[in-house]
Amino acid sequence: MLSRSRQVPVFRFARAASTLQELWASGASVTDIAAESCDRAARADRHEWVHLVPKQQVLAEAKALQQKAASMSQEQRRRELPLLGSTFAVKDNLQVAGLPTTNAMDYRPPRQAPIAKRSAAVVKQLQERGAVCIGKANMDCLATGLVGVRSPYGACQNSLDRSFISGGSSSGSGVSVALAQVTFSLGTDTAGSGRVPAALNNIVGLKASRGLMSTDGLSPACKTLDCVSIFSLTVPEAQRILEVASAASGTDPWDRPGKDLRQGPRLPPSGPASFRFGVPSARFVDFGSFGAQAQARADDYRQAWERSVEALKAIGGTCVEVDYAPFQEAANLLYQGPWVAERLSACADLLADEPELLDATVKTIVENGTEYTAKQCFEAIYQLQQLRFEAMQALNTVQAQVLVTPTVGATYTIEDVLADPVVLNTNLGRYTNHMNLLDLCGISVPTTFAAEKLPFGVTVSAVAGHDALICDVAQRLHSAAGLTAGATTSAVQDVAAAVEATEGKYFGPLPAGAESFEVAVCGAHMEGLALSWQLTERGGRFMRTARTSPRYRLVAFDGMSPPRPGLVDDAKGAGIDLEIWEMPAASFGSFMKLVASPLGIGWIELEDGSRVQGFRQVDHGANRRGLVGVGGDAPVDITELGSWRNYLKK
């Protein structure tokens, strides 16, 4: 939606809605949204920002975008500027052209942080697609920490309760989204930094498959593990941002294009769903084991976890117990193994030349990297490979499609963490540190509150390439939870409705670069009908409704099980309703094996003159049971009804 003559000052919109998404849906212009976002960020008082872009610069960029969009058709805007009307924060270890990059090192005056000459690939991609960068967000120094207190720019305070930690290392990125200062933000995730702040601030944190979002322009923590992550108020927003941002993949040697990732199944876009989720056995989910500082909240966390598991069952999940030991062992390797040496490698020159720039706790951690030999490094790699094998075996043994864990098992006050900075940080990574080592994708999603101002979330994870599946589960779970979004007063459902009103219904992406094609379905494979599972289990996603050109007849093979229609060429025919689905090319062969005679795949002409592959009757002379050459009643002509759904309503 692009509106946009403004007769009403933006402050009137601000009183009517608490999120930028709702403001945009209410008719605010691109410059209105940018101005409101700047004003909210300027009033920030939780140490969430390191550097804000001057408001006039932001407004100039927004105005240029608004003028560009005004010259486009609605379809062109949707295609070329899908993020129009959004603003975002960037974690301060990602480059933004013209802005300083501190990596949360002590560049306070008179020191000056280096100014980026170019933007990180993902930042540039998002800006080119209509999003406006507001500034650089606070973080834990060198992205080493899950607490958000290891910064010379202040300990970032939780968005719901100032006395508690915000989570790290992407602290400011999480808090700025939770407080609706920006539409979304970029963080990074090596040990859990893209998920812990999400759980502690009641928002969504998506850590896609490693390498799917380019790390070009990222100051590394561990190059072999680093991921760029996304914070948002709703799951579909995170998916849409991923679809846009992942198009930048391929600009860095560590990027892994979507076409190289295994693509997993999907849940149906609506209606009943069925999936199997694994959870750790009880001995691995002991909320009384997170230290005396969290003991008073342990029972609240336990009950929140139990409610979350029940909520997963309520949306169609079957719960199975997974042998969690290999996941836990892998998590322990991250800071108790030679990957600490990789962190040392990333900052060795700084330690030698300007050690005073580093946070004292972070400096102590990375200096431990000197203790590891090359021999130990290789031994750890061998151990990790064995743990990957065992972890996958654990999931496969119980046929779990996804693994679900608490994102964190406790939280702490800022005061507690400053008093015990290493042990409490380690506790926060118990359910997150394994993720990149085991090559999993994961999304942290709010499910309930453990107590007032104490949000609780779970992480849904799966093997790399199953990003769409984990988002499908998370979306259903988040929608059913009945929560408010972040620290705002807006219901998640209201924010989601605002997004859908401006961007249209959205069912998530296939990985950028993945070879796919569109297939038209006109019968039992349509959304929610008897055979749609054959598409979703192969990674297919619903795209849109469509209609054929007026040159087809529709006949009903009502003797088949399940009944299905046939689309037949006929110059005296009519337009027939269709659905267009996108399907991974790699799954097409197995799908074709399921196509029953007399149907097949062929070209279908749409009412706009374009053509798409889709279901047609290819064996002519078939009876209503779909059998050829055996006689019997012919299929019933239902062309006048215009669609298979209308036939089913009879």
UniProtKB/TrEMBL annotation:
Residues 249-272 are annotated as: Disordered. It comes from Effrenium voratum. SUPFAM superfamilies: Amidase signature (AS) enzymes. Residues 34-470 form the Amidase domain. This is Allophanate hydrolase. Residues 518-649 form the Allophanate hydrolase C-terminal domain. Pfam families: AH_C (PF21986), Amidase (PF01425). It comes from the Eukaryota. GO terms for molecular function: catalytic activity. NCBIfam families: allophanate_hyd (TIGR02713), PRK08186.1 (NF006043). Residues 253-263 have a biased composition (Basic and acidic residues). PANTHER family: GLUTAMYL-TRNA(GLN) AMIDOTRANSFERASE (PTHR11895:SF169), TRANSAMIDASE (PTHR11895).
